[in-house]
Write a structure and sequence with these properties.
Bound molecules: cytidine-5'-triphosphate
Strand content: 25-35%
Radius of gyration: 25 Å
Distance between the termini: 35 Å
Helix content: 25-40%
CATH class of the largest domain: Alpha Beta
CATH architecture of the largest domain: 3-Layer(aba) Sandwich
Strand order of the largest sheet: 12-11-8-13-16-17-18-19
Shape: elongated
Structural class: alpha/beta
Largest sheet: 8 strands, mixed
Oligomer: single chain
CATH topology of the largest domain: Rossmann fold
Length: 396
């Protein structure tokens, strides 16, 4: 979904981060047109943004080199989004009061596209009452305010006012563009591996990066749903706007799911739950000796089956990672666990990779989602769920 984005840059140290933001947006296929205020050019040169965006950078309101000297005003007329990052206190104050005295503020005033603003300023400037009033005014006028974050600042202070990181801004923009297919829905998702303790330092786990589950959590949140993400141990960052509950064992995952499932419209079970836990766990580290160590393993509860087979269940989506007979095993699993939808994939193609290809199994049959980045697969899965859900709900 390629979009046309006008990226406004105002004067602030965070302007250098917008170079990375430009790169991320361009890499995702969007066309980026950069507009810099005069102050912004003191921090980073237009040449940097020209090289990264592949488009001319606009800095002045009057341009005698084009026949219609106001042509660049049209920039935002064709844009899908006008994003200003970093947005200084001065810029925010001008926009809040309808002042249009340079190219960027004129574009804001004359735009037909939506406006998103990522403030970046010193802690005191952020908290300054006039600035707070101006930010409120922007919100009231329909602008999307992204951030700021708290942290150490260029001036040496620590506090609120840092611009969001380029990766976060990129995620926010991508999320904003997604259709709100699951608006108002509450979705519970499990992801990652579980870890079954043997002793104080050892355990049994499954191979699972958590990437697919986290990509789905992000896609579901992008689609406007409220997401609770129950995650086994992974090093992945929490997707924007998801409530995350960290767990280790299958038993802990089950408890977290039981706590939240009643308030959920959908349950998406992506976690690679260990099938067994260790009965003869040791509180202390087991010292090695010459003897054979025997572990007694007992089956873990099937979290998905317990939710799907309960009275009045949410819409349940299961996963099946198989190494052979994908469709046959997948469909058998779907029937056994009474799932309206199951996502089947081959372990060989999915594990740890950034890409995946899957087959969706539902009452209508099979639907192949060809190889794509996991985030893209997640978005297509969300679209499929959004098509099935109303029908399923109606039939209950
Ligand atoms: N699942 C679960 N709790 C378990 C085991 C699995 O919630 N204790 C969920 C997974 O999150 C996934 C689906 O069930 O959505 C996987 O089904 P399962 O039959 O457990 O897969 P395998 O363990 O691979 O089963 P098998 O060994 O029979 O292939």
């Amino acid at each position: 979904m390629q979009k046309r984005i006008v990226l406004g840059i105002t004067g602030g140290v965070a302007a250098y981060k917008s170079a990375e933001l430009t790169r991320l947006l361009v890499k995702a296929g969007h066309s980026v047109h950069v507009v810099m205020t005069e102050a912004a050019t003191e921090f980073v040169t237009p040449a940097t943004f020209q090289a990264l965006s592949g488009n001319p950078v606009h800095t002045a309101l009057w341009n005698s080199s084009v026949s219609n000297s106001m042509a660049h005003i049209n920039l935002t007329r064709e844009a899908d989004l006008l994003l200003v990052a970093p947005a200084s206190a001065n810029f925010i104050a001008k926009v809040a009061n309808g002042i249009a005295d340079d190219l960027l503020t004129t574009l804001v005033a004359a735009r037909t596209s939506p406006l998103a603003v990522a403030p970046a300023m010193n802690r005191q400037m952020w908290e300054n009452p006039p600035n707070q009033r101006n930010v409120e005014q922007l919100k009231e006028d329909g602008a999307l305010i992204l951030g700021p974050a708290s942290g150490s600042q260029a001036c040496g202070e620590v506090g609120m006012g840092r611009m969001l990181e380029p990766g976060q801004l990129f995620e926010e923009v991508e999320a904003w563009f997604q259709p709100k297919l699951l608006a108002g829905k509450r979705v519970l998702i499990t992801a990652g591996p579980t870890f079954e303790r043997i002793d104080a330092v050892r355990g049994i786990t499954n191979t699972s990066s958590g990437k697919m589950g986290f990509a789905i959590a992000r896609a579901v949140a992008e689609a406007g749903a409220t997401v609770t993400l129950v995650a086994g141990e992974t090093a992945l960052a929490t997707p924007l706007a998801c409530q995350r509950i960290d767990v280790k064992s299958a038993q802990e995952m089950l408890s977290a799911v039981q706590t939240h499932v009643a308030a959920s419209d959908l349950f998406i079970s992506v976690a690679a739950v260990a099938d067994y836990y260790v009965l003869n766990q040791s509180e202390h580290k087991i010292k090695k000796d010459a003897h054979i160590l025997t572990l007694e393993l007992a089956p873990n509860p099937d979290i998905l089956a317990s939710v799907a087979c309960a009275e009045n269940p949410p819409f349940c989506v299961g996963f099946a990672a198989e190494s052979e007979n994908l469709l046959e095993y997948g469909e058998a699993k779907r029937k056994r666990k009474q799932l309206p939808l199951l996502v089947a994939n081959l372990v060989q193609t999915a594990m740890g990779a950034d890409d995946n290809e899957v087959i969706l199994l539902d009452d209508d049959g099979q639907h192949r989602l060809p190889r794509a980045p996991k985030q893209e697969i997640a978005r297509r899965l969300v679209a499929h769920i959004a098509r099935l859900y109303p029908r399923w709900k109606e039939g209950r």
